[in-house]
UniProtKB/TrEMBL annotation:
Name of the molecule in the record: ADP-ribose diphosphatase
Annotated PROSITE patterns: NUDIX (PS51462), NUDIX_BOX (PS00893)
Cofactors required: Mg(2+)
Entry's Gene Ontology cellular component terms: cytosol
Organism lineage: Bacteria, Bacillati, Bacillota, Bacilli, Bacillales
InterPro entries recorded: NUDIX_hydrolase-like_dom_sf, NUDIX_hydrolase_CS, NUDIX_hydrolase_dom
Amino acid sequence: MRKFEEVTTESKEIFKGKIVHLKVDTVTLPDGNTSKREIIKHPGAVAVIAQKEDGKIIFVEQYRKALEKSVVEIPAGKLEEGEDPLVTAKRELEEETGYTTDNLQLINSFYTSPGFADELVNVYFTDQLTKLEHNVAGDEDEFVELMELTLEEAEQLEKEQRIHDAKTSYALLYLKIRGLK
């Protein structure tokens, strides 16, 4: 057994939804004792830092039921089963913003909440955007409003907690480090 490894001795699926699955695992701890772990299985997601030629960054505002409020975020979405994250990133960019690109660079990926979920978000960057002639239909239950902001405007929204999620805060830090003014 590797240091700190927990060995699953039993796994029980509690809920299987459209996006997430919840299971409860019984594990043997490194010291030999047992414990329960509640785990959310998620297909993974992408997020896109999309910067226009004028330096403005593309965001979307949408209502997030889990938070009971609207938040401003970078374009993002979940992976479809078996879908390449790069394909997902381009699709989500087109659906949510009306822009496309042939140049998406993977910046990094991170687990959103490794204490209880396996969701991995792949973050891409592009500064080569083309406006689509016709909007691409998005998810029928998703309503978003496009926003184009300077870094300073976005940082102000973060202070106001209108930008209040990890992937978008990560994007702002990335742009600041990259030297966007």
